[in-house]
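Subject — a protein and its fold
Fields — amino acid sequence, structure tokens
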Amino acid sequence: MEKFKILGLSLLLFSAANAQDVEQAKKAIDAEKYQNAKKALKSLIASNDDEGKNYFLLGNVYLKQEEQDSAAIYFNRGKNVKRDAEYNLIGLAQIDLSNGNASAAQTKFKAVEEELRRKDVEQLVYMGRAYINAENPDFKKAITILNKALEKDDKNAQAYLSLGDAYVGDENYNDAYKAYRNAFRLDNTALRAKLQLGVITKNTRAAFPEAVKAFEDILAIDANYGPAYRELAETYALWGNTDASKYDQYIKKALGYYEKYMQLTDYSLNSRMRHADFLVLAKDYKALEEEAKKMQELDKVNPRILRYLSYSAYENGNYEGSLKAMEEFIAKVDPKRLIARDYLYLGLAKLASTVSTDEQGNSIITDQMVFDAAINDIKKAAEMDIEITNEYNDIGKKLFGQRLYGPASIVFEVATTNPDNRNAFYDNFYLAYSIYYDHVNKSEEDRKLNIERLVVADAALANVIELSPEAQDAFLFKARINQYMQSEEAYAEMAKAYDEYIRIVGAKDATSLSANERKNLVEAYSNAGAYYVVTEKEKAKEYFTKALELDPTDEYLQGELERMK
């Protein structure tokens, strides 16, 4: 009997130690210390290979690191052990969801639910998380399952935390905020919930100072909670990109916080890739190139590294290297892993490799087929993620500076399709500007076939004027573009646009006018006056007189005024 007592005590102590180690592994996962978590869970499996939850947690770490095959190995091993094997069906169901096999996933979830006891809640929470974390997420189903978990236990902080994530995915930020707040109220060690409150603040209202304070409050509780440093880094990077005057200051802070995050987590390949993604956000392409080379030393076959080599090579002026790396990346990677930025850099590298200069210094296209493919790649990037068009302004202006007006107009036109375009004013103006200069450089025959593009330019300038009613150059180019349309309606629009230019610029003190403004004002008075000769002779006479005051030597104006006497 004494032996049985000792044996029972030892089993009890072992179970307690195992549970404690599992909780430590969970904390490591939450803190994004994935290497530590994997090491701890593998040790637990080695010492007790009958506990299914350990296999499940380890498989989940691999899923977080996008290593589905390794995750499946552990889930399949764990589903056949004595205790808590059902957790691994949840992991396998998530893989089914990611692979688009929802029916297989639901079969596994049903098998788990049928075996649940009245008070079992954790399995339901992980089922909800499976719907959230799958590559093909279903947030509404996640919400339903997580609410079912809360019906069983309305004090479960992890259920509220996961419910918050589901609501964020469903773009219901008010309910997400409430769920995170409840999670932290029920468990003040659930720092992830408090972290997500700051993330909502940052992402939904761009309230950067408030978000920074939220993350700093977390570090006041636990100075070693790595994810808070990552969020600080990303907040300052976003802030810097929206406040040009403080860009350098905030990017420096962001890079410092991210380095702290890396120190507190690990320098594994997966962490370095996340760091690389951040360096793209921070536009630190020298550091990105260094990071990509370090990743190659760790893993020479992972195709994703080629993505970062391509991005950094392009930004550091190695266009040939960028194109080679991106084409190799696209050839090797699963197509569903491609993102909009990949096609953007593919297009940019092709553009750079097909534009040269002639003896007179004019830009020329050396390979029209590759150039056309480049433009299509840039269009495809926008189709995949419209938000990326916020970066098209710089691309279009570079083409415009190369006098490649037609291609520049296409880039700006794509950018203007974004309803939330941060550069809407300049993209619309440069769209019209590019079309105009492309048109004037065409032959007479080609101009006749280009009227539809002039209509696009006219509409773009209408957008500019709506955004800024006093934008004088918008009226000037609107007048010029309508003049080239050569229809009665267009000539009337031309005159109206010149009228507005005259109203804005003519109201200025004559001594303050620039040389260009004086020249353009003469153009406006002259061309509008020529239109009004037929409809409003007195107005035409007034305009010709004012134009002659600005340019007394203009023979055309002198002749028109003499003819009208």
Summary: The first strand starts at residue 355 and ends at 357. The first helix runs from residue 2 to 30.
